[in-house]
Fold this protein.
Amino acid sequence: MNPFFKQFFGKQTFGSKDSSASQKKGVLDFLYTDIAIDLGTANTLIYARDQGIVLNEPSIVALNRDNEPVALGHEARLMHEKTHQDIRTIRPLRDGVIADFEVAEMMIRGMIKKVKVKWYSTTRQMVVCVPSGITEVERRAVRDSAEHAGAKEVYLVDEPMAAAIGIGLNVHEPVGSMIVDIGGGTTEIAVIALSGIVYAQSVRLGGDELNEDIINYFRRVHNLLIGERTAEKVKCEVGSAAELDEEIEITIKGRDLVNGVPKTRSINSVEIREALAESVNTILEAISKALEQTPPELSSDILDRGIMLTGGGALLKNLDKRIMEATELPVHVAEDPLTAVVRGTGTILENIDYYRNVIS
Ligand SMILES: Nc1ncnc2c1ncn2[C@@H]1O[C@H](COP(=O)(O)OP(=O)(O)OP(=O)(O)O)[C@@H](O)[C@H]1O
Ligand SMILES: [Mg+2]
């Protein structure tokens, strides 16, 4: 736990629930592998009871002509945008929700199979996190997919609640915390107090959109066509939300749109910041709106504690600085922001009774 979280939340808030009391152990437990899943637009992570995080792979499946899966996760990601007519890669989630049920189920099933150390075991309990803004129909779809993938009991938890638990906040306290989880498909902003979500807003904008911004920028300004993987590399290596102490440069390869030949080009962080500006502003506006809607007593807690950033998008260089300047509040990037949600979902799985009122 980083020093900031320790100062405010101490040790008692994380892993202190008496799991032996809240979780009854049975003699047949060896027959089951209970798991928690962060089914994300960009990445799927699985936490297994008593084992911790056992899988962390891109949410992508490669299918053959007969629609049978030939690769999952990392392996499928390597094939993405490099396939021929006999193989296609599919990302079954869009904007934080399942867009292709059949493939999503194949992916969940395949990933669970990958992590099952005991071939004879079945999945009994499964905790799955979902974006806070989704509809009842979309929630039902996630529950159905988890059940079809073999789970006997399925519990859903809102993604920002899981993120808050994952970074060690005591969500049961009568104290407000603001979580901003920036994923691949959505940005979830939530104010949490007394085990509930006081305010939540889910903006269907995340890392995927930033990649699109970069692709469009190269096409418009440099007549250069680049793929999603190159855009992702540019974003992670030179993308930023505010001025850097030392601006950086990267060389990338793409296809020249004028004469159709492969071309190399150098690009610096100032240009990429410009390309990302509009989307970054949309995130800032959503945070400002959330602050405006927060009841005053909770606002004062947020003033003391600051805003917590989780999700892969929190790693965009100087995004914390930019949010700090815009809101005049302290902003903290969670330790290992990409695993915060699954760590929280896993903590819920290990302490189901203690967290009964945050799951449905
Ligand atoms: N260093 C980085 N800079 C900027 N963005 C990053 C960095 N590292 C990862 N990302 C982005 O984080 C996103 C993935 O984050 P995360 O795994 O939290 O999303 P997700 O949970 O799959 O999506 P969602 O919660 O929206 O369904 C990707 O869009 C990725 O490009
Ligand atoms: Mg996520």
Notes: The first strand starts at residue 35 and ends at 39. The two ends are 28 Å apart (CA to CA). The pocket of adenosine-5'-triphosphate (ligand 1) is lined by residues 40-43, 96, 183-186, 206-208, 232, 235-236, 239, 311-313, 315-316, 338 (CB under 6 Å). The chain has twelve helices and 18 strands.
